[in-house]
Design brief:
Blueprint lengths: L21 H4 L2 H5 L3 H12 L2 E6 L7 H34 L16 H27 L2 E5 L7 H18 L5 H19 L3 H5 L18 E2 L16 E6 L12 E5 L2 H6 L14 E5 L11 E3 L4 E3 L6 E3 L5 E4 L11 E3 L5 E3 L18
Antiparallel strand pairs: 1-2, 3-4, 4-5, 5-6, 7-8, 8-9, 9-10, 11-12
Helix pairs in contact: 3-6, 4-5, 4-7
Keywords: 2Fe-2S, Cell membrane, Disulfide bond, Electron transport, Iron, Iron-sulfur, Membrane, Metal-binding, Oxidoreductase, Respiratory chain, Transmembrane, Transmembrane helix, Transport
Subcellular location: Cell membrane
GO molecular function, one term: oxidoreductase activity, acting on paired donors, with incorporation or reduction of molecular oxygen
Length: about 375
C-alpha cells in the first residue's frame, strides 16, 4: 500500500508526508453518506489489514451448504425442544400437579423430578453449544489477517461498524432462513426455561412466617423418636430426652427438635429463668430448642455436673440454669424455650409454639 493510497495523505505533497488524518479528510457527514461496502474497504485500507489466507465456506446453494445448514438448524431445534421439556416438567409439577414432586415413596415418578429438570436444561445448553460450533466451523469463512494498532477516532467508529455489518453478511444469516427460525425458536424456548422458576414465586408465594414458626402449637404432644408420649415420671432427674411434635405426617420436623430436661433438686434451687419465661417449664422439667443459635447444628451434649448444653460443631455452651444462655463459644443468643404443660391424660404438651424463632440469627433478629 503506497502513501498516496492511504487516507490522510495528499498526492500533491511529497511522498510519505501526511497533513492530517482520516477525521480531517472524512467528516462525519461525508462518512454517513458513504455505502457500507465502501466504508468497509476504506477502513481496511487505513487500518492496514492484510488478509493472509482465506478458507471460503461452501458455495451458496450447494449440497454441502444445505447439509451444514440442516445440521445447525437441527441442533438449535433440539435445544429448543429440551428447553420446552424443562418448562413442561417444571410447570406441570408446580401448577397442574402440585403434589407430584412431593409424592410418597410409592410413586416412583417423584424421584425423577429434579433429575428431569437437570437433564432437560443440560440438553438445551449442550445443543445450543453444538449448533454454534457447527455454524462457525461449517458455514463461516475462515481467514487469517494481520492489522496494525492505532488510536480510535470518528473514522474508526464508522468504518468499524461497516466492517461488523459486513461480517454479519458473511455469516449468511440474512438468507439462511432455516437457521434463523430454528435459532429464534431455541432462543425463545431458552428464555422460557430460564424464567420458568420465577413462576414459583407467583404460584407458591411466601406466606406467613416460615422462618419464625415451627410445628409446635397449643396442645401438641411431646413424643419420643419412636412416637411414644412422655409423662413427668418417665425421666430420671438430670436426664435429657429429645422430643418432637406429634403432628400429622410424622414427628421429624427438623426445626422442631426439642430437648426435654429434668432438673435435679439443686438445679431447681438455682434456676434463673429468662425474663417473662418463669412459667415456661413444668415442675422440674424445662424444654429448649435443639437447634444451635450459632450455625443451626444439633445441640446434643448435656453435662449434668455443670448444667451446660454443648454444641459439638463449634463448641458453644449454654447454661440451663440461666435459661440456656450462651456462656462459651460463638453463639450469641439463648436457646429458645418451649412452654410446656400436661394434657388431660397426664402427658406433656406444648402450650404454644416457641415465642422466638429457632436456629441461627438472621437480618432483624435480636441477640437475647
Amino acid at each position: 500500500m503506497s502513501t498516496h493510497d492511504r487516507p490522510g495523505s495528499d498526492p500533491s505533497d511529497e511522498p510519505g508526508m501526511q497533513y492530517g488524518g482520516p477525521d480531517d479528510d472524512f467528516s462525519p457527514e461525508r462518512l454517513a453518506g458513504m455505502q457500507r461496502e465502501d466504508l468497509n474497504r476504506l477502513g481496511a485500507r487505513y487500518d492496514g489489514v492484510e488478509v493472509l489466507h482465506v478458507d471460503p465456506p461452501p458455495p451458496p446453494g450447494s449440497g454441502l451448504e444445505k447439509q451444514a445448514e440442516r445440521q445447525v438448524a437441527m441442533a438449535f431445534g433440539l435445544a429448543g425442544l429440551f428447553a420446552l421439556a424443562f418448562a413442561v416438567v417444571y410447570f406441570g409439577s408446580n401448577w397442574f400437579l402440585p403434589d407430584w414432586q412431593w409424592a410418597s415413596e410409592d410413586n416412583g415418578w417423584s424421584a425423577l423430578y429434579t433429575p428431569l429438570l437437570g437433564l432437560t436444561m443440560g440438553g438445551a445448553l449442550i445443543f445450543i453449544g453444538v449448533g454454534l460450533v457447527l455454524f462457525v466451523k461449517k458455514l463461516l469463512p475462515h481467514e487469517t489477517a494481520v492489522q496494525d494498532k492505532h488510536d480510535g477516532s470518528q473514522f474508526d467508529r464508522a468504518t468499524t461498524a461497516a466492517t461488523l455489518m459486513g461480517g454479519l453478511d458473511k455469516t449468511g444469516f440474512p438468507r439462511r432462513k432455516m437457521i434463523g427460525r430454528s435459532l429464534g425458536f431455541a432462543g425463545g424456548a431458552l428464555g422460557l426455561m430460564l424464567i420458568a422458576p420465577l413462576g414459583g414465586l407467583i404460584k407458591n408465594p411466601n406466606k406467613g412466617n416460615p422462618l419464625g414458626t415451627t410445628e409446635w402449637a397449643e396442645g401438641v404432644r411431646l413424643v419420643r423418636d419412636d412416637g411414644t408420649p412422655i409423662r413427668p415420671g418417665d425421666q430420671e432427674p438430670g436426664s435429657l430426652e429429645t422430643v418432637f411434635p406429634a403432628v400429622e405426617g410424622g414427628n421429624r420436623a427438623a426445626d422442631a427438635a426439642t430437648m426435654l430436661i429434668r432438673l435435679r433438686p439443686e438445679q431447681m434451687a438455682a434456676l434463673e429463668p429468662r425474663e417473662g419465661q418463669a412459667d415456661f417449664g413444668y415442675g422440674d422439667y424445662v424444654a429448649y430448642s435443639k437447634i444451635c443459635t450459632h450455625a443451626g447444628c444439633p445441640v446434643s451434649l448435656y453435662e449434668q455436673e455443670t448444667s451446660r448444653i454443648l454444641c459439638p460443631c463449634h463448641q458453644s455452651q449454654f447454661d440451663v440454669i440461666q435459661g440456656a444462655k450462651p456462656v462459651f463459644g460463638p453463639a450469641t443468643r439463648s436457646l429458645p424455650e418451649l412452654p410446656i404443660t400436661l394434657d388431660d391424660e397426664g402427658y406433656f404438651v406444648a402450650r404454644s409454639d416457641y415465642i422466638e424463632a429457632v436456629g441461627p440469627t438472621y437480618w432483624n433478629r435480636e441477640r437475647i
